[in-house]
# Entry
Amino acid sequence: MRERTGLRKKYHLTRKDREINDKKTVEDLLKGCRLAFISICAEDEPYIVTMNYGYDPDRRALYFHCALKGHKLEIIGKNPSACVFIFRDKGYVDGKCEHKYQSLVLRGDIGVVSTLEEKRYGIDILMDHQESDSDPVRKRNFKEDTDYDIFNMLRFDIEDISAKECL
# Structure
């Protein structure tokens, strides 16, 4: 992961009445949701992809697993800046033209994990986040160190969070 040389532009919500300021609510969303929409860009080419994630509150990071090569990795290699969107859908309110939701917009850098130790750590975070009982999945899929060679692990370091809701 690269070291930041300057501060990322801070954005503000236009609808202050919908801003989530409660840190526990933000943490609950990070811990409770399972899908993230990752937005990245290289040159003039934006790209967005939906991925399962694991949240690590101690490192203030999200972990994702992906293929060993592909378009996403090419873009990340050129520009590690990313925006991640996490969304809890509470449903459309028929007759009111209104949608109930909670959402997070995260800004930070994303990169490929470089060590086997952190790859193991990241996949454990991801599986514990996604699975109600991750041990059987872990035992079935990860018997040897070489089992980690078939995928990449990405880490997104959270620098800023904007949180919003309409309940």
Q: What stands out?
A: The chain has one domain: 16-166. The longest strand covers residues 98-112. The domain at 16-166 is CATH 2.30.110.10 (Pnp Oxidase; Chain A).
